[in-house]
Amino acid sequence: MSMRMAPSAAMQSGGRRAYTARMKRLVMSLAILAAAASLDAQQPAAPAANDPIRTLVSRLDLEKYKATIKGLTAFGDRREGTERNRKAVDWIEAQLKSYGCPTERIRYEHNPPARTGGGGGQGGGQKPPAPTIASGEVRSGPGGSRYRGITRRTGVNNDPNAQPDAALRELNREPSKPGPREEVFCTKVGTTRPDEMYIVGAHMDGHGWGAAANDNGSGTALVMELARIFSMPDVQTDRTIRFALWNNEETGLNGARAYVDQRASMQGKENPPGSGRYPEPKWLGMIQHDMMMWDHGMPRADGTWNPEQRPEADVNIEFQSTAKRADEAMKLAFFFREANEKYATDYPAAVGNHMTNTDSTPFMDLAPAISLRENERGMHTGAGWNPTWHQPIDVFSTFSDKDFRLGLNAAQTTLSAVAQLTNARLK
Ligand SMILES: [Zn+2]
Asked: Residue 374's closest CA among 341, 343, 352?
């Protein structure tokens, strides 16, 4: 935030003494400004006034982002293998088309082994269990992470009656059935390098008898917003960008895996030969977005959570250090952090090396793959930092503008990074 002065107030003063005091304060303010300016000189170059990327970032809008999340919550928890999930895929596709982003679908089968015992997924979601408080021993989390401090058990709510909203309870009533599945993506084709692309993804399915507002309406809406802006008629990119809304993430990344299985070998091939068309451009990077809004901090010792977004909230960019393409993914992650420093308005970004349990995982040995989240998936989310996760309270009204704004800042981060990587410009 910039410092501002009101010199006119000094001019309108009555009395010499008051005037002198005001002049002293003004001189001090100028000294502070000069010191701030010399600090600025050591920062990365600030974007130019006519920077096209700044213009693109300014086209992101908090109210539009919220409206898209709200639109997704109209389909309840969008659990895969249900009518509400299929309707959500149709709605997403209609939105992408209306932005001018041509769509395609991936088709695959999902036939999981029959479960023994009721429900599906672990955890109850009834009374939250008592917090576990660190006692010094090493407690491992997923993805190579380590839990610290106070942790809470996590799980998926399977109890319809835990949802107090009767209409939402009914909307979520149909159980998942095995069988065919579909997911949608749309593509912005590059002008000079149509054979190379970045994939910008989020999963659109959810569960837990809420409305999957944060997990993962927040990531889905982010990807849709970027598709909207990159598809504007005055925007050109050298490289291709694909916006993918994966299905079946919550059942084990099945939609993203289907994409990798079907299309990895098609990369970079012109088809038909001589057409200039590349149905699957070479993957230069895969950027996943999952749970973008809630960073309220560690659970408290008394079993409650901070109801407000913490002022230290940040966007967590993760790569996986055990991936075959880890070094390139690490570089990509730090490139995103720099983009955040240059273009994001409110919240900073942090980089971690334990990306896990997300749709970028099936890509990570084949291409540089990173994920953006509200928290680190292992150390934070896995330790129970988000009480809305897979719970009936993951509904639109649970979140404040400070929460929505964290998601918007992640959108600013990815938009500005991908715009630079694809050499986006305005016609
Ligand atoms: Zn998720």
From this structure: 352
Task: For residues 320-337, give the mean pLDDT.
Answer: 98
Contact 56, 416 (CB under 8 A): yes
pTM of the model: 0.86
Cα–Cα distances in angstroms (integers) from residue 207 to residues 153, 222, 264, 354, 391, in the given order: 18, 19, 29, 24, 8
Q: Are 374 and 394 in contact (CB under 8 A)?
A: no
Ligand 1 centroid to Cα of residue 264, in Å, is: 23
Q: How far apart are the CA of 16 and the centre of ligand 1, in A?
A: 64
State CA 202 to chain mean position distance.
7
Residues near 280 by Cβ (< 8 Å), separated by ≥ 6? 263, 266, 267, 268, 269
Tell me what percent of the chain is helix, strand and coil, each rounded to the nearest 5: 35, 15, 45
- Whether the CB-CB separation of 191 and 277 falls below 8 Å is answered with no
Structure-token match 């730090």, residue found: 334
Distance 291 CA to ligand 1 centre (A): 6
**Closest listed residue to residue 216, CA positions, set 291, 128, 104:** 291
Contact by Cβ (8 Å): 371, 377:
yes
- E-assigned strands of 315-411? 315-318, 349-352, 369-373
Of 86, 255, 247, nearest in space to 174 by CA: 86
Q: What average pLDDT does the segment 315-319 reach? A: 98
Q: How far apart are CA 292 and CA 295, in angstroms?
A: 9
pLDDT in tens, 95-129: 999 999 999 999 999 999 876 544 444 444 444 55
What is the distance in A from the centroid of ligand 1 to the CA of 339?
24
Distance 189 CA to ligand 1 centre (A): 28
Helix axis angle for 218-230 and 401-421, nearest 10°, is: 40
* Ion ligand 1 contact residues with beta carbon within 5 A: 215-216, 290
DSSP state of 388: T
Residue-wise pLDDT tens digits, 392-403: 999 999 999 999
Task: Tell me the CB-side half-sphere exposure of residue 418, using CA atoms within 13 A.
Answer: 35
The rounded Å distance from CA 214 to ligand 1 centre is 8
Structure tokens at 145: 């992470």
Tell me which residue has tokens 């539009």: 64
Residue 247 has pLDDT above 50, yes or no: yes
Cα separation, 412 vs 404, whole angstroms: 13
